[in-house]
Specification:
two-stranded parallel ribbon, globular, Rossmann fold, mainly alpha
Length: 228
């Protein structure tokens, strides 16, 4: 499950280190930070230069999910406050960047694709330790979904979440462990996390506006990792 962000880049490295064959899947759902999709090709090209990962990296897939944009009401889809563009906490104590059903749909579509491709593990960057509070990032949610998927498809597909119980500092450390300085540099230069899609401002931790929750989490994690 490869968005082109820091977390999914670490997960791609994790998958390439662990499995003999890896395919990547991204989604175009009308996100305001659609630039992340453009980053995916550069990351895939650069990561093949590390270890023997080039021999393990297979096809890339991008699936459109326009229904999420049509539903709207989130700061990740639409460009103004009436469409949910303002990043703030909502009355339900969830951030306005929460896209209801997004990860549930991503993983269901991913499982369907894996089923057709003869694959049986979905690797995702969901995390409930150092995150924006999304309920579909929790492990209990994914356990329930994994059960439903396998009952509904008579399959044995597992959802592997290597970042679930670590923070962003540990995610930077994982990248260094898996791919050394080269993978850290690749993540800094080519991955994208900023919700506003800002690729104009370069910081020590990578590109982004520096103000949105995704940038703040990434920057704080990088600083803690560098200080450790």
């Amino acid at each position: 499950m490869f968005s082109g962000g820091q977390d999914s880049t670490a997960c791609l490295a994790y998958a390439l280190d662990k499995f003999a064959h890896v395919e990547t899947l991204g989604f175009d759902y009308g996100q305001t930070h659609k630039v992340e999709l453009a980053c995916r090709a550069d990351i895939r090209a650069e990561i093949t230069k590390l270890h023997d990962w080039g021999d393990r990296l297979g096809d890339d897939h991008t699936l459109p999910l326009p229904a999420l944009a049509e539903i709207g009401g989130t700061a990740l889809i639409g460009s103004n406050a009436d469409e949910g563009g303002e990043i703030k906490m909502m009355e339900n104590n969830l951030p306005s960047t929460f896209v209801p059903g997004r990860n549930l749909l991503f993983l269901t579509y991913g499982a369907a694709l894996a089923y057709r491709r003869g694959l049986d593990v979905l690797v995702g960057g969901m995390c409930e330790t150092d995150y924006s509070g999304y309920p579909d990032c929790r492990r209990d949610t994914l356990d329930a979904l994994e059960t439903a998927i396998n009952k509904g498809m008579e399959s044995a597909i597992s959802i592997d979440t290597p970042l679930m119980h670590i923070d962003k500092a540990a995610t930077w450390a994982l990248a260094e462990k898996l791919g050394g300085d080269a993978l850290v540099a690749l993540t800094l230069e080519h991955s994208h996390s900023c919700y506003r899609g800002d690729r104009d401002h370069r910081h020590a931790w990578g590109y982004g506006c520096g103000d949105c929750p995704a940038c703040q989490l990434r920057a704080a994690g990088y600083e803690r990792w560098k200080a450790s």
